[in-house]
Amino acid sequence: MTSPHAGAARPHLFSDRTVEGYRRAMAEATARVAGRIRRADRPFSGVSPERLAPEIAAIDLERPLHDHAAALDELERVYLRDAVYFHHPRYLAHLNCPVVIPALLGEAVLSAVNSSLDTWDQSAGGTLIERRLIEWTAGRIGFGPAADGVFTSGGTQSNLHALLLAREEARTEAAPARLRVITSEAGHFSVRKAAKLLGLGPGAVVTVETDGERRMRPAALARELDRCHRAGQVVMAVVATAGTTDFGSIDPLPEIAALCEAAGVWLHVDAAYGCGLLVSRRRRRLLDGIERADSVTVDFHKSFFQPVSSSAVLVRDGAALRHAAHHADYLNPRRMAERGIPNQVDKSLQTTRRFDALKLWLTLRVMGPDAVGELFDEVVDRAAEAYDLVAADPRFEVVTRSPLSTLVFRYLPPDGPQHGGLGRKLADDANLYAREALAASGEAVVAGTTVGGRHYLKFTLLNPETTLDDVAHVLDLLAGHAQRYVDDLAPLAGSPEVTHVCS
Ligand SMILES: Cc1ncc(COP(=O)(O)O)c(C=O)c1O
């Protein structure tokens, strides 16, 4: 028999007796986050791991606070105060977007109901909603009715999943050491990780060169396909990128598709970043040819303004998904599949899986696809304006004009011999320093990368709230830090202070 006091004895367990506590706790959490967001005058506090680590280490996990407000007070100190805020217009670093409110609504609902998308008997409508979204995404890609796919934890998992299917579809007896995956030198590192996880040899991923715009050169791909064939190697997949991480470049998909079709090779398009174009009314054509892929990665948490995680892998022929299927008697026995019971675990690499699709569902139901595409178009427009700004600024050199929303550039010390060994080292060190000093100030957060072995700075613009004035301001800050390095710190290079700041 249930005790009449059971609810009071288990106040933290979410149940019909604790919904008032749930409501209060969620309202309290929302108020704290709203307060933080309203007050954040910079994207980051600049805290160092050395300063924050002792505060977190000092918390005694054996002694609970028994109170939401007290736990949230503590959280303010160890997390909310120093978190990196992607919604801030001067967060310009990685592929993190600000998120839309309908998606946050979805996040709140999905974690409270806590469906697990592995089987119908753990999710019911959740399964069907995910399936509708896969169908919708496949339609946007231009796949036919045989297409299918599944939500994943991110682009890394989507790429791994696609390459697993590609390997199985290659139907080859070739030893793993003879299998090859071809991508461009600007492709994402998760392709290499996937190859390793699939047990391919260390030289399995072959990169081909890119053109001046950092797009895969089809002629180089043709040469590599031919070379592999003559060497008795089996190309199990070509990975084209629609939105490279550093340059936002989009490989020439129609030409690459034609080469893959002629060679009978699986084409995977990594559109983790570029997938936002699927809902762009002005730029959808940049993805022309994607419909000829065998599989596609989309990261809704990069360019659909969704919270982490929200990603999917899609395949032109859904039958390929059978390669990831396993029928467990306790969970999804084969007889269920034969009866048409929709168990998503039959298609996924994961078993227990979040209902991340709900965030995209509510986004589409509240805002609609055009409004999401408009947000993405705005950031692409802003990046084009930012390119013009940097290109016209003699303090900087810029690499390429991105068709998406990145900007790779670097500060050039005005009086250093730019092309000599010492001048280059000075420029490298000044740019490295500027990035770190800026992050330490918390005024803005930018990324860095290397191009041709030299250190560059990178903006990834994903926030429509970022104005050109914000960009100009961050450029001034970077130039100030870099020049300070050149004037004051470079002469001391090697001193403990300088080594510390730049390490
Ligand atoms: C082109 C590309 N592919 C794949 C990934 C990996 O995605 P995730 O971080 O969601 O695993 C990234 C991440 O930045 C990316 O830029």
UniProtKB/TrEMBL annotation:
N6-(pyridoxal phosphate)lysine: residues bearing it: 302
Keywords: Aminotransferase, Decarboxylase, Lyase, Pyridoxal phosphate, Transferase
Cofactor requirements of the protein: pyridoxal 5'-phosphate
Pfam families documented for this protein: Pyridoxal_deC
GO CC terms: cytoplasm
GO MF annotation: an example: pyridoxal phosphate binding
Position of the signal peptide: none
GO biological process entries: amino acid metabolic process; carboxylic acid metabolic process
CDD domains: DOPA_deC_like
Family of the protein in this entry: Belongs to the group II decarboxylase family.
Protein name, per record: Aspartate aminotransferase family protein
